[in-house]
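Lecture 7 notes: from sequence to structure.
We start with the chain below.
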Amino acid sequence: MSFVVIKLVSQRIALGLLLLLAATVLIFIGTQILPGDVAQSILGQSATPEALANLRRDLGLNEPALNRYFSWLGNALQGDLGTALTNGKDIAESISGRLNNTLFLAACAAVVSIPLAIFLGLLAVRYRNRWPDKMISAITLATISVPEFILGYIVMYFVAVKLQWLPSVAIVRPDMSVFDRFEAVAMPVIVLTFVVLAHMMRMTRAAILNVMESAYIETAELKGLSAFRIIASHAMPNAISPIVNVVMLNLAYLVVGVVVVEVVFVYPGMGQYLVDHVSKRDVPVVQATGLIFAAVYILLNTTADIIAILANPRLRHPK
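Predicted structure tokens for the same chain:
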């Protein structure tokens, strides 16, 4: 590995850490400017001024904002996400199961959507500007144009209500078998696949078409190789860098952007957990979930940048 590659990878990692630090600042500021009083929302409208003052003191709300930020950041770095204001439970323990559920849902959607998007991208290139290419582009663009919650309700109406193939809500429990868990997440997976499919497919198509203009592709055509073999064996490997980037971006979305889908299907994941506690103005929970979402998103984007650097032969083998 050359010095240039090591330098670029180190810069990407440092940039990711700086972005994460900036995200913690934005999360803290965002939770502090939420309307309403935390103590009032916990004790209710009938609370006495003395009780409110005592709770604000216990929660540290009388401390300067800068002190509260560094205290929260220091605890988070040690793995202490605090306790929920609404029920007094440890946030890290409450989140662990829901994070596993969200990762399971994202993994199932990725296993379906990534191979399908790459295959459709290859197919669109093979039949470029012909009816398969136009039909694939039209269908994928139509699905990505529909808001997620509408798409979710459409899928729920036809699959769960009309056809009664699957349950209308995606309830998962620790004691469920693997097959039952797959059945429970089938509809959210369908919706998430529709949402991310178009972006990955079109980027795959664009990346491969860009490579198809190269001279060595013309040489392969002159040798009499089949069109699909040229695309799969010669164009695809050289277009892998932008494809990996867009796949990583959509993986980040599958983890971070599932909030709407989880709410629609009442799926017990991180998104549902976040929405429940935003409505209750449970600031520590909102901060913890926001921090985890930001960390996952930045981690996957940084990973995509590093893979793109390592996949660049001009950086790996400089002259």
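Points to note: The chain is about 75% helix and 0% strand. The mean pLDDT is 81.
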